[in-house]
């Protein structure tokens, strides 16, 4: 017995008498496939090839193929031939060879093309006539339209043996004109008692006939599996008008026949109901809002909702909520597509209605939801109690209404109203624990508000915010970027994936724009036999991956599989390439210190591209690289791009004059404060760190940063945007994953957590936990190199990225730190900067981290407009939380840690100013 698969049909072939194999479709079936005729096999059927007979799986009716030769009625013969693919499978090769030789027309022109015998099966008379005179399939392609033959074959095949029903059905498809009412009624009259499927199919086809605009069916394009088919579908529906052109174009571009089980074709046939009619689209004026151009690629899908709500916490929104309540008090909630009659909301759950109005106007959002829809259970509850059932339309129920308004009930993707019906758990005693200096916006319309993290020379008049000149991304845009910022915006004329990088000039406009190489956003990644679209993130083993223009970019972390042996687990270090966890540091050409030469080689560096020792303990000015009239200043940095060199020094001349309005406090190695770095250089001093001079950092006290570098003081580490791991020089490398052992860190005395009861995170490669939120970001090195090229070959550094990310943290009680991990992920920490942070401040930092994580994973224009943040592909987040006070108290500190804790607490104020 030979078992073969034929679509959804189970086939068992008896091969004892006939030597058959599962082969491709022979000439007769090839013609059907080539011309687009759908073959609809039956259900699970047993075929006895030895007897050359077929049994239809549903009705078990017997059909003897030998009877074909004795049938005199042409219509009866045509009917049986049209139904034959449903009765007999394609693998019955001898049967189909026999049928091919006995079809009408074959004997008359035996030397003609193989499809001649099928001409009588065509639905339209023009197609039959052209087919009889043809010599190849190309001769009939213009006359035999696929939409007629394909859909006609599909719908009319449901008529079974009822010839009259089939004839009236085929009449629907014989002309290019819209089916008439009499034709549709005739099909209903003669087919209603035979096949409900046929009526449904014909009804769906007539509804989809282009009486309405093809653009109304754009939502069906989203259901195509292939990205190129989605793009082609949208283009065809916008440029073609007739149903025939559209169907032919879709079949050619998508490379698939319109089978009813495929979601896109099912949608076009009308099986899936269209959404509510969208608002009329208007072309976006050029250069009106470059920030929103980033949304255009998302607007091509039905997932983009132009009325999606965004956060709006201001007086105007509060007034809007009050106005909503007044309107709803009239007894009817008026929606764009329905009216909802309600009882007197001033008496029926008034607080809940206020919460609904506030959620719609103030627009709270969750980092995973992107919207402000109230939860379905709340919607059903409030309409069940307060809906005026007497005035509901027929069939209108709270459940059906809420299925349209709020179909989601996941608390992470909708807004639960109970949050706004109970008093805050924080109580009224909280006074300025968390500030938002830029909300409401205190700056003029052409200035950008930023949290003041630099500090002021005059502390008495120091404001918590800065108003810096900015550029709007278009005349009608409200999106501002600071002066000198480099911004990536989509090109106005190029296809999707084409961008240009511009700078914000002194004029307040984007200028000096340079085009970047276009990215093929239609090219998918094939991973494990699965198709991943551009921009999709996924996991492979323990790796985080993202598809970018056909390339799967994955993290380089080491993985343990489920079938790893005990010996493998004992020797697993978690370091790249399974390198040992010995700390013999080397400094690579990208400015990053790696724990060993093994790790550096694993990450792609040749032996001549690294030297032994820590990067920050080397002297980049030792070789006198600068000219005589210039000073060499060490400028340690870790480069993310490798298109150009990564110099660790800077050659500067003594500035003749400095801008006295520029305030950027800098502390020199003598402990003296300067108003700016320019004035420090003008005085001929050496920079110790940026920010106000701190008493705790006057004397060198070495600390080890999370990046594996040794710093002379805590202030120096903070100035480099690196958080401290432990006291003393670096001499160990920590675990890179949760499953890796941390034996190398067992001798490291870790500082106490900043707040008792904190559930901390341990950054990869570090030894000690920290009470902060952590992002591990996957990024595109090719994009970083492109940004370096368009910026006069200046390298893109970790410090550059962190400085831009700081602009997106709106709470001054939290700040951004980070480093490049040894497996080349970007690790970002958002940590509280207070000496003793409160639980609310810890939570605020977690929310800021969730916000940035969401902006990265959703490729929000708020973030991807900024260079180099637009090279981010994916982010994974870990947040700290605070245990209840009823838990066990902290263990006593080891004596040696008391000094480090005091040092960190004394220096914590530097975080506000560095």
TrEMBL record:
GO terms for molecular function: metalloendopeptidase inhibitor activity; serine-type endopeptidase inhibitor activity. Belongs to the RECK family. GO terms for biological process: blood vessel maturation; extracellular matrix organization; sprouting angiogenesis; Wnt signaling pathway. Keywords: Cell membrane, Disulfide bond, Glycoprotein, GPI-anchor, Lipoprotein, Membrane, Protease inhibitor, Repeat, Serine protease inhibitor, Signal, Wnt signaling pathway. Transmembrane segments: none annotated. It comes from the Eukaryota. The keyword Lipid biosynthesis does not apply. Its main location: membrane. This is Reversion-inducing cysteine-rich protein with Kazal motifs. PROSITE patterns: KAZAL_1, KAZAL_2. It is a lipid-anchor; GPI-anchor. It holds the Pfam family FnI_RECK. It comes from Sander lucioperca (Pike-perch). It is found in: Cell membrane. Residues 571-617 form the Kazal-like domain. GO terms for cellular component: plasma membrane; side of membrane.
